[in-house]
């Protein structure tokens, strides 16, 4: 089994620094490394030049179900699933790699990344514990983040069926998910 404990300390520091650079919340570092809170706090201040934001992580699945966030989350998760099958990497390294590829794709389209690394990490946890899943769109065939038990036969994604208030082709228009 792949667990965080097999990471050496040097690797853990490297992982923590990478996560901080990508904007991860301190709670992500606490969960993914065995480094002490004090150590992580020092590291965070050193790398980011500021104190970590306080307060709870957003622990609800609701955000992932709203229109544009859902498209961004689905794009990330498709990349993540692909890497998860293809590469022999630590779980957290797959999240980091998938997140970087997500950023590349979003920026290549001239879009703002709506999904933070913290939310991306959280999304993978929601998938792992069965609170969210992926369902195939009955129109375009792309796989999208949904609640479990979505009826695949009738499911239509946010790209095929954008809400009426959405501007024509704006923001999400350039994205394709397969
Ligand atoms: Zn679709």
TrEMBL record:
Q: Which Pfam families match?
A: FlhC
Bound cofactor: record note: Binds 1 zinc ion per subunit.
What's the chief localization of this chain?
cytoplasm
State the signal peptide span: none
Q: What does the UniProt entry say about where the protein is found?
A: Cytoplasm
Q: Per UniProt, where does Zn(2+) bind?
A: 137, 140, 157, 160
**Which cofactor(s) does the record list?**
Zn(2+)
- Keywords, in A-Z order: Activator, Bacterial flagellum biogenesis, Cell projection, Cilium, Cytoplasm, DNA-binding, Flagellum, Metal-binding, Transcription, Transcription regulation, Zinc
Among NCBIfam families, the record links this protein to:
PRK12722.1
Q: Which family does it belong to?
A: Belongs to the FlhC family.
Question: Quaternary structure?
Answer: Heterohexamer composed of two FlhC and four FlhD subunits. Each FlhC binds a FlhD dimer, forming a heterotrimer, and a hexamer assembles by dimerization of two heterotrimers.
* Functional summary from the UniProt entry: Functions in complex with FlhD as a master transcriptional regulator that regulates transcription of several flagellar and non-flagellar operons by binding to their promoter region. Activates expression of class 2 flagellar genes, including fliA, which is a flagellum-specific sigma factor that turns on the class 3 genes. Also regulates genes whose products function in a variety of physiological pathways.
What name appears for this protein in its UniProt entry? Flagellar transcriptional regulator FlhC
Q: Origin organism of this chain? A: Caldimonas aquatica
Encoding gene, per UniProt annotation: flhC
């Amino acid at each position: 089994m792949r667990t965080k404990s097999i990471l050496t300390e040097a690797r853990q520091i490297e992982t923590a620094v990478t996560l901080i650079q990508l904007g991860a919340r301190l709670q992500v570092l606490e969960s993914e490394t065995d480094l002490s809170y004090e150590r992580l706090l020092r590291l965070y201040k050193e790398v980011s030049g500021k104190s970590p934001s306080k307060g709870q992580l957003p622990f609800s699945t609701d955000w992932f179900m709203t229109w544009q966030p859902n498209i961004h989350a689905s794009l990330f998760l498709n990349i993540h699933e692909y890497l998860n099958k293809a590469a022999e990497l630590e779980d957290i390294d797959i999240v980091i790699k998938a997140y970087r590829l997500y950023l590349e794709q979003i920026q290549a389209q001239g879009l703002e990344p709506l999904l933070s690394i913290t939310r991306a990490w959280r999304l993978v946890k929601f998938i792992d514990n069965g609170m969210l899943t992926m369902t195939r769109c009955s129109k375009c065939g792309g796989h999208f983040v949904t609640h479990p038990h979505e009826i695949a036969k009738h499911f239509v994604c946010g790209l095929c069926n954008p809400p009426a208030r959405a501007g024509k082709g704006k923001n999400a228009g350039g994205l394709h998910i397969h």
